[in-house]
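Title: Comparing notes on inverse folding

I've been comparing how different people in this forum approach sequence design from structure. To keep things fair, I'm posting one structure and asking everyone to reply with a full sequence. Here's the target:
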């Protein structure tokens, strides 16, 4: 059922369709291959201007716009009743025989879908509000820019075309758009925007103002290659009837964003051209999450492979006989890997002396020496090397061109050597630094926190291996270096206490309980244990103490002194032969391997006693100790009864776990009492252990 007032509008619409088909040479069923290019497919918009002053200059006739002009509302009604096609009415509010609202009411009664723009110089906000309420497509004051009016007219015509030609309500599309946080477009087969629909939460996702986008083309909004690809997707969708999907990046009000475009046929023709609905969903967060996940996977893969490399290096270190062999193995493995360009090691920093690289693999030694010279020439200044020297911390340069930690001289040389990134790792075991491991990365951005942790662990392992080799060389060497230090009482707590209490302190032995925990056993002569314990609080280096034994002449104390001179000498890789504090002076005698860096030992010792004096240094021959000689000394120390008790207990399984014979069983076999057996065993065991430790 239709009313009489709908008949003229329908007839006018049918006439317009026929005219457009004739003008544009288009039919609703045109094959895709025969579609004209967008330049020839545009239709001329026919505008009826109702204004006593004539049409505005912005609507002058050209290829896109054809203007018919009348001066009264009556003349406008008569024109619309003719066979002339009208795509949009642009009317002044103040007309000689009526006002614009009266004309709008007539147009809406007979032509409800015909766009109507009130373009007036005599309106008001009340008029604008009433006009929009009566169904005006748009309202603009006459002071508006001409291009703005032209765009508004084009948008009004395009929107009406979508609704009237396709049979799909734009308002319905907008309702659907408001139901999800996406932007939707209606685009014809030639790439022209016919409508833009945005939800309430999508303002930041707009690329161009909606008023400016409608009537433009894909090539106006995107670069040519991208627009060509999008137009191809539009036409493919119309050919197949299916849904095409694409992802693209574009600039929006909130910056660069990524969108997933889903393109589906609209299901009708507009001005004889087919169209699609393009829904653009913001997928920036999803892509960022995917990128971060991919980067995390790549970083984890890299870290796992680096950990495998470090494990291989550690395995290769087993059995290394010298420090040079250890360092060369590490540098070769790192430099030959896919992750690093070259590697080098340098000895520990010695005050007032410039460091020189020891082992260099993967680059020219002369180039590296130039860099190290610039880096270590002034360690008191701010540069990458200074932090490793002063603070014992690793230094990471992820981008040599941008890093703020580098001095300008360092940066200049690194860029000249084409070093994109680098790391310096201290070779530290306990409190002793054995030097530096330097590594050049293969690219910028290397050395994540977890990778740095792995390399620092490698540095600790290398330092441990160097320390172990030093100790082994010291044990096996026929020649050692003996050093004697002297510390005055004003600097040594024990030396000062020896004067105040008129006593003597002697180091009996040292036990390494853990990497950072050393127990010292100190004998005291001339003062009671309780008197000494009461005064130990005056010695800052003593953290814990207890009395092991005490008699009328001597007592033995167990002390934990992390910062003591003995601890520093042990950390420096020496063996403390003796340490005695008496008459206000402390003397230390240590033994080191023949290849020891004496300067490093002195500097390490002076971290506790800055004024310590190196009294003497000389080489000493160490007698060769054979197993036969050791057994001979043990045999001379044990009495016959002690040897008999020890042998019987051993062969009877007394030392097995669980015991195969008890003490009572062994005593009964020897026909002695159990207390006598245990007395002989304790004496024999003490002699055995003492001989072993003394050796």
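Reply #1:
Here's my take.
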């Amino acid at each position: 059922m239709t009313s009489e007032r709908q008949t003229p509008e329908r007839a006018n619409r049918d006439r317009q369709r026929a005219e457009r088909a004739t003008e544009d040479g288009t039919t609703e069923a045109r094959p895709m291959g025969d579609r004209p290019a967008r330049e020839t497919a545009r239709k001329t918009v026919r505008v009826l201007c109702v204004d006593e002053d004539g049409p505005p200059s912005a609507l002058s006739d050209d290829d896109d716009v054809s203007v018919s002009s009348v001066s009264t509302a009556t003349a406008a009604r008569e024109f619309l009743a003719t066979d002339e096609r009208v795509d949009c009415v642009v009317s002044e509010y103040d007309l000689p025989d009526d006002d614009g609202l009266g004309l709008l009411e007539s147009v809406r009664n007979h032509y409800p879908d015909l766009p109507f723009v009130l373009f007036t110089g005599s309106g008001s906000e009340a008029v604008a509000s009433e006009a929009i309420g009566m169904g005006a497509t748009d309202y603009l004051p006459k002071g508006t820019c001409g291009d703005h009016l032209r765009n508004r007219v084009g948008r009004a015509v395009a929107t009406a075309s979508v609704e009237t030609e396709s049979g799909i309500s734009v308002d319905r599309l907008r309702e659907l758009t408001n139901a999800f946080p996406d932007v939707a477009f209606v685009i014809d087969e030639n790439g022209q925007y016919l409508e833009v629909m945005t939800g309430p939460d999508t303002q930041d996702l707009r690329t161009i103002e909606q008023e400016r986008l409608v009537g433009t083309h894909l090539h106006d909004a995107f670069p040519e290659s991208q627009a060509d690809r999008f137009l191809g997707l539009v036409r493919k969708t119309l050919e197949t009837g299916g849904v095409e999907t694409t992802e693209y990046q574009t600039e929006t009000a909130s910056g660069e964003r990524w969108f997933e475009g889903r393109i589906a046929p609209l299901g009708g023709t507009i001005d004889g051209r087919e169209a699609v609905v393009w829904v653009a969903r913001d997928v920036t967060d999803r892509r960022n999450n995917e990128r971060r996940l991919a980067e995390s996977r790549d970083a984890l893969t890299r870290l796992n492979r680096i950990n495998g490399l470090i494990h291989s290096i550690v395995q290769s270190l087993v059995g290394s006989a010298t420090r040079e062999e250890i360092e060369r193995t590490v540098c070769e493995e790192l430099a030959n890997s896919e992750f690093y360009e070259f590697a080098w090691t340098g000895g520990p920093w010695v005050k007032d002396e410039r460091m020189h690289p020891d082992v260099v693999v993967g680059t020219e030694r002369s180039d590296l020496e130039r860099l190290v010279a610039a880096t270590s020439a002034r360690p008191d200044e701010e540069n990458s090397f200074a932090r490793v020297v002063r603070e014992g911390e690793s230094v990471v340069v992820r981008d040599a061109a941008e890093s703020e930690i580098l001095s300008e001289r360092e940066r200049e040389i690194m860029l000249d050597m084409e070093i994109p990134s680098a790391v310096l790792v201290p070779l530290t075991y306990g409190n002793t630094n054995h030097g530096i491991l330097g590594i050049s990365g293969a690219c910028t951005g290397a050395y994540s926190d977890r990778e740095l942790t792995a390399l620092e662990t490698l540095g600790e392992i290398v330092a441990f291996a160097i320390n172990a080799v030093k100790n082994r060389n010291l044990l096996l060497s026929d020649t050692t270096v003996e050093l004697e230090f002297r510390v005055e009482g004003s600097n040594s707590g024990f030396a000062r206490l020896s004067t105040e209490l008129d006593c003597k302190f002697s180091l009996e032995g040292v036990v390494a309980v853990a990497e950072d925990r050393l127990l010292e056993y100190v004998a005291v002569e001339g003062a009671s244990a309780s008197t000494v314990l009461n005064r130990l609080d005056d010695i800052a280096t003593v953290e814990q103490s207890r009395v092991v034994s005490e008699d009328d002449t001597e007592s033995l104390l167990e002390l934990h002194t992390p910062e003591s001179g003995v601890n520093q000498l042990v950390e420096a890789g020496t063996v403390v032969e003796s340490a005695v504090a008496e008459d206000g002076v402390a003397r230390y005698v240590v033994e080191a391997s023949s290849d020891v860096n004496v300067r490093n030992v002195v500097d390490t010792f002076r971290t506790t006693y800055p004024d310590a004096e190196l009294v003497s240094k000389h080489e000493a021959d160490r007698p060769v100790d054979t197993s036969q000689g050791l057994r001979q000394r043990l045999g001379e120390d044990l009495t016959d009864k002690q040897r008999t008790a020890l042998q019987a207990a051993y062969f009877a399984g007394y030392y097995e776990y669980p015991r195969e014979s008890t003490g009572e069983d062994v005593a009964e076999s020897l026909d002695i009492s159990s207390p006598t057996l245990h007395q002989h065993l304790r004496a024999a065991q003490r002699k055995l252990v003492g001989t072993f430790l003394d050796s």
